Amino acid sequence: MAGESRLLIQKDIDVTVVEFLDKNILDEANIQQIGEEINHLIEDAGVPKLLISFENVDHLSSAALGTLITINNKVRQKDGQLRLANISPQIYEVFAITKLNKLFQIHNTTDEARKNFK
To answer: Range of 40's domain?
Structure first.
């Protein structure tokens, strides 16, 4: 894969936690790379349990939201689960406006999200 990883990936017993290294997820090339990295995690997992933390993120582009929707679809195709956590109020507002807060399971903290996996 070209370039350095844009993600910090931690694997718990059965949950993979993904954090972004960038504060701003706006650049198309970075978003594509992030999507590819997360797709590899999904493909490598039998039944993916993915927790994406937005703790370090200040800004998110619509392309990044599109990538999240694609990730969500891939996780569901494998009967997996996706949780989002640590979303700042201004980014959450974007999820609310686009009604994506209904599509995704969003939690305040990674611990709260982790407890929500079945």
So the answer is: 7-115
2 inside domain: no
> How many other β-carbons are positioned within 10 Å of the β-carbon of residue 15?
17
d(CA 37, CA 103) in angstroms, rounded, equals: 22
- CB contact set of 9 (below 8 Å; sequence gap of 6+): 16, 17, 18, 19, 37, 41
Which residues are within 8 A (CB) of 96 and not within 5 positions of it... i.e. 6 or more apart? none
| pTM of this structure | 0.94
- The CATH code of the domain that includes 54 is 3.30.750.24
Q: How far is CA 35 from CA 5, 7, 60, 115, in A?
A: 11, 10, 14, 25
- pLDDT (tens digit, 9 = 90+) per residue, 12-58? 889 999 999 999 999 999 999 999 999 999 999 999 999 999 999 99
